[in-house]
UniProtKB/TrEMBL annotation:
Family: Belongs to the binding-protein-dependent transport system permease family. HisMQ subfamily.
Transmembrane segments: 26-43, 74-96, 108-132, 138-159, 180-201, 247-265
MF term (GO), any: transmembrane transporter activity
Primary site of residence: membrane
Lineage: Bacteria, Bacillati, Actinomycetota, Actinomycetes, Kitasatosporales
A GO BP annotation: amino acid transport
InterPro entries: AA_ABC_transptr_permease_3TM, ArtM/GltK/GlnP/TcyL/YhdX-like, MetI-like, MetI-like_sf
Domain ABC transmembrane type-1: 70-265
Subcellular location: Cell membrane
Membrane topology: Multi-pass membrane protein
Species, as recorded: Streptomyces griseorubiginosus
Gene Ontology CC: one annotated term: ATP-binding cassette (ABC) transporter complex
Coiled coil: none
Protein name, entry field: ABC transporter permease
Length: 277
């Protein structure tokens, strides 16, 4: 105690919580930088450059890598997305239906196509369908097969996303529409679904990114030279040139699309969170 009788506060020993967090963060940064430097020093960049970064091989890929391979990849993706969106909407409404068989069918569809690898769906479309229905041709040829295969896979995920979006719309919206004389179907199409799509737009865009990468499975359908997408185009040239540079260029072309789409998804999610606040 002091002369005035005031108790003396004992001095704290060690670091405060804030100081400990700062030290921990600093240690993490140091470890991360050390790992990066160790990787950069130990890697044989000369061999990597010879195998993955041959400028003359990369230049030979243009403009076909853009006008042919990337174009086909985008077309496959968009067609599969449209089929998946339409089918997913139907499955989602069946999932929410008061009719039992509709709900059961939608549930079984979602569980099956969400559980099976996309590769098996492509093989099924390319092999099983022609065997089961001899002489039957899917409209659009390879493009139609890819759209159907991607759409069947995407619809299972989109259906659950759309269902969640519809259920997120306040029930009062349907009641208000019904009080204005809207039929249940018209209220769903005109009032509920548009609001639901504003909610689910970010995850749907994310699904588009996933489909863009899954389009590489088109090779299991058997494609012509003019129907090749980025992965098939890159692998073919890699085999021809005995070099992996075409695969790297194809990967960069994927990033040209997926990175901007990822940025759009993050922006939409941020705006959605601001709207909720």
């Amino acid at each position: 105690m002091t002369a005035a009788g005031t108790p003396v506060q004992p001095r704290r020993k060690g670091l405060t919580r804030r100081q400990k967090r700062s030290v921990s963060r600093g240690v993490q940064y140091v470890v991360f930088v050390a790992v990066v430097i160790a990787f950069a020093v130990s890697a044989d960049w000369g061999r990597l450059k010879n195998q993955f970064a041959q400028g003359d091989i990369a230049r030979q890929m243009f403009p076909d890598v853009i006008t042919l391979a990337l174009k086909n990849t985008v077309l496959y993706t968009l067609s599969g997305f449209v089929v998946g969106l339409v089918l997913g909407m139907v499955i989602a409404l069946m999932r929410l239906s008061s009719v039992g068989p509709y709900r059961w069918f939608a549930g079984v569809y979602i569980e099956i196509f969400r559980g099976l690898p996309a590769l098996l769906i492509f093989i099924f479309i390319g092999v099983a369908v022609p065997l089961a229905f001899p002489g039957t041709e899917i409209v659009g040829g390879t493009y139609g097969k890819v759209a159907l295969a991607l759409g069947l896979v995407a619809a299972a995920y989109m259906a659950e996303t759309i269902r969640a979006g519809i259920q997120a719309v306040p029930k009062g919206q349907m009641e208000a529409a019904r009080s204005l004389g809207f039929s249940p179907a018209r209220a769903m199409v005109s009032i509920i679904v548009p609001q639901a799509f504003r909610i689910i737009l970010p995850p749907l865009t994310n699904e588009l990114v996933l489909l863009f990468k899954d389009s590489s499975l088109v090779l299991f359908l058997g494609v012509t030279l003019e129907e090749r997408e980025l992965s098939k185009y890159g692998r073919d040239l890699a085999s021809t040139t005995a070099n992996s540079t075409p695969i790297l260029v194809a990967g960069l072309c994927y990033l040209l699309v997926t990175i901007p789409l990822g940025f759009v998804v993050r922006r939409m999610e941020a705006k959605a969170q601001e709207a909720v606040k």
